[in-house]
Amino acid sequence: MTNPADPRAWTAGMTLAERRWLIGDLETQATYGQRVLVLAESGDWAQVVVPGQPTPRHEWGYPGWLPKVQLTDGRSFGHLAGRPFALVETPTAWLYDDPRRTRRAMELSYNTRLPVLARLDRAVLVATPSDGPKWLAASDVSVYASAADIPRPTGPELVAASRMFLGLPYLWAGTAGFGFDCSGLTHSVYAAHGITIPRDAQDQANAGTPVTREQLAPGDLVFFARNNGTGRVHHVGMYAGDGYIVDAPTNTDTEESGVEYVRLDEHRYAHEYAGARRYL
């Protein structure tokens, strides 16, 4: 438990049993530099909510506890909130200490947003919460004046973004390029394209516009539920077109799962299909 956290090292050292143990014990994930709201403190831990991750559990965002050491009272960083920001659009991207990008400082996830201080042809200088100015490769990010300036995506663009993560091992509560759970993948891909949808699968299934199976189009979300599709939703994937979906299926007791591209009618949960929703 460090500040900044090192999710790459954390996930790389996990056994399958340890990944399975996380199920039900982790809540969600906030990316580096993301604002959270502190609700309570207890010893070395703080209860926070993550704005931008809608849930019925709290009106301000997704709730959970995290070590206080991973929080920064970045008041000077917060004052930069109105500046243009760099949005990471690759699965992960490195922060560097120098504009030539020879000295790596920290690996960031997809959908990380940091305020821009300066731009060169091949590098972007960004502010960090507590580590001073750092550089990103210009090819890893897009720079926007505000979140409202992120172009509205097409369905195929959402699918292409999801497919960048094929093979990435499943991580319960993950919302980052180091590992996703099923709804973390769909939520994060939409978020990186400027569209906020609920954080969890059941809530994603309750929002959006209902779509019949015959009307499915790329970018639609498809859902699977207990009791042969009639019970509580437990899984979500993104329809990719031509009868395929992209999804992050959970690990089993004996097999680690990765983000996959699979036919909808051949999916492990095909018999639990429970409908689809459109957010475009």
How would you characterize this protein structure?
By secondary structure, the protein is an alpha+beta fold. The chain has three domains: 7-72; 76-149, SH3 Domains (SH3 type barrels, Roll); 155-278, endopeptidase domain like (from Nostoc punctiforme) (endopeptidase fold (from Nostoc punctiforme), Alpha-Beta Complex), CATH 3.90.1720.10. Helices cover 16% and strands 31% of the residues. The chain contains seven helices and 18 strands. Strands 6-5-9-8-7-4-10 form a seven-stranded antiparallel beta sheet, with no helix packed on it. A six-stranded antiparallel beta sheet has the order 13-18-14-15-16-17. The protein has a three-stranded antiparallel beta sheet with strand order 1-2-3, with no helix packed on it. Strand 1 (37-42) and strand 2 (45-50) form a beta hairpin. The longest helix has 11 residues, at 182-192.
What key phrases describe this protein's structure?
alpha+beta, 3 domains, globular, SH3 type barrels, 6-stranded antiparallel beta sheet, endopeptidase fold (from Nostoc punctiforme), single chain, 280 residues
Report helical residue fraction. 10-25%
Number of helices: 7
Radius of gyration: 19 Å
CATH class of the largest domain: Alpha Beta
Structural domain tally: 3
The helix-strand sequence is HHEEEHEEEEEEEHEEHHEEHEEEE
How would the global form be characterised?
Answer: globular
How many beta strands in the DSSP annotation?
18
CATH architecture of the largest domain: Alpha-Beta Complex
Give the oligomeric state of the chains in this entry, treating copies of one chain as homo and distinct chains as hetero: single chain
Q: According to CATH, what is the topology of the largest domain?
A: endopeptidase fold (from Nostoc punctiforme)
Strand portion: 25-35%
Strand order of the largest sheet: 6-5-9-8-7-4-10
Q: How far from one another are the termini?
A: 38 Å
Question: Structural class of the secondary elements?
Answer: alpha+beta
Averaged pLDDT: 96
> What about the largest sheet?
7 strands, antiparallel
Low-confidence stretches: none
CATH-defined superfamily of the largest domain: endopeptidase domain like (from Nostoc punctiforme)
